[in-house]
Amino acid sequence: MSSVQLYDTTLRDGSQREGVSFSVxxxxxxxxxxxxxxxxYIEGGWPGSNPKDVEFFNKAQNLFLSQSKLxxxxxxxxxxxxxxxxxxxxxxxxxGVKVATIVGKSSGFQVTQVLETTLDENLNMIADSIRYLKTxxxxxxxxxxxxxxxxxxxxxxxxxxxxxxxxxxADCLVLCDTNGGTxxxxxxAATEAAKRITAVPLGIHAHNDSELAVANTLAxxxxxxxxxxxxxxxxGERCGNANLCSIIPDLKxxxxxxxxxxxxxxxxxxxxxxxxxxxxLIHDNFLAYVGSxxxxxxxxxxxxxxxxxxxSYQHIDPAKVGNQPRVLVSxxxxxxxxxxxxxxxxxxxxxxxxxxxxxxxxxxxxxSRGFQYDHAEASFELLVHRAKPDYQPPFELVDxxxxxxxxxxPATRKNLEEMLAEATVKVRVGKEIMHTxxxxxxxxxxxxxxxxxxxxxxxxxxxxxxxxxxxxxxLEESTGTESQVRVLIESSDGINEWRTVGSSTNIIEASWLxxxxxxxxxxxxxxxxx
Length: 530
Ligand SMILES: [Zn+2]
Fold this sequence. Notes:
Elements: E1 5-8, H1 24-37, E2 41-45, H2 51-60, E3 69-75, H3 87-93, E4 99-105, H4 108-115, H5 119-135, E5 139-145, H6 147-153, H7 155-167, E6 172-177, H8 184-197, E7 202-206, H9 213-222, E8 227-230, H10 244-255, H11 262-265, H12 268-278, E9 296-297, H13 300-308, E10 326-327, H14 335-344, H15 354-368, H16 377-386, E11 396-408, E12 417-429, E13 432-440, H17 443-456, E14 466-475, E15 484-492, E16 497-504, H18 507-529
Parallel strand pairs: 1-2, 1-8, 2-3, 3-4, 4-5, 5-6, 6-7, 7-8, 9-10
Antiparallel strand pairs: 11-12, 12-13, 14-15, 15-16
The protein binds zinc ion.
Zinc ion (ZN) binds next to loops.
């Protein structure tokens, strides 16, 4: 099978996603990870457009990349000037990289309507810019912007743009579905047409506006492109770019193209999670291959089947992409589910027959009160431990009190009104009872602070544990006059993440239960590790 070069643009196109802003250090860290994954080209940014990217390329000189090549991105020269006078091209040439990608128009309509120049001048801009960068010793990839839309309305001109780039010495012609509206069959036809007129290797750059970026990329590969552009987790402007975390395993495990090694593929899930962490985005559980639910099983019937034959309900062995099967514990679960889940968590417990039934009854009863363990494995694991007669909890909650106050501040203060919360908690550790108080910007924050204050005296290492996400859901299906509130907390110690759940008719109590589970779970893990 033909070979494919992977080109990652997470650091440029990916950072265009709403809510994402990478610092220079973030970008350097991500580049290092992409190299470990075996990405061939890493597009670092647009040095001609912002000083942060210039700084990135300066600092990237000190990166040790075992196989990835750094690429600087820019555009063709502006109309009616010389290439060597274009500041954006000059910045590309002095970015300290060996490869540059320049974007240029390949849609006649875009040239006349948006660029407001002539079709011929655009061809000159493409050729001049590539020639200039080639004389400066760079390999040049040409991103043919709006290629598929251009091919649709004026195929002859779209292909002439590619030809101009080829004649100027471009090393790869990248066909871009810039607006993300092209269908796979159209990608195939246009790619085949491009292939007929040029001998230069082709690439594909697809956006996901029609949820087809991955499909379009695979269609282009089938039609003969050898460079695939995309981003980790599909991050990108609007609906995102083609998702390399899906494309890579698709190519390797389904199409049979060894774009990275088996060992590198095992890092895929880790890299996906790492990039979401750095981007400060919650990792999407439902991502194909790398999401934590990608190999999750909820139905008791499926669980019964996979405990007999692992592949009965999964399309690949999750270990190949560094993911793992996960059995969802829920109301649907049968006894087998509970036993399998406990085994998966590595719990050495007498969960046979009666015990498993008892635990299952307990899970069901808690779920009827609004607890849900699908996404709160840590709370589930605690339940299993608590079922053991000799389980000693690291601490026990005695009681708590929260006072909330809304105060008017003196007129000199910026915020005239301020919410203040103060919590006092009573916690038993061994034979001692700790009584502490703390303030916070809200009741949950105050509770968290007070609980930590009490426990830190016994468990100083608890300071590593941070709350990373807090979700509240009102459960409407509950009976009675008060609605049930479920709180899901995600915590991290910088290495591992875990999720706990609390449920009550009172939001503070629900939070308190989830919070206490989070800390208890971590302390339990520490105890088991030592
Ligand atoms: Zn793009």
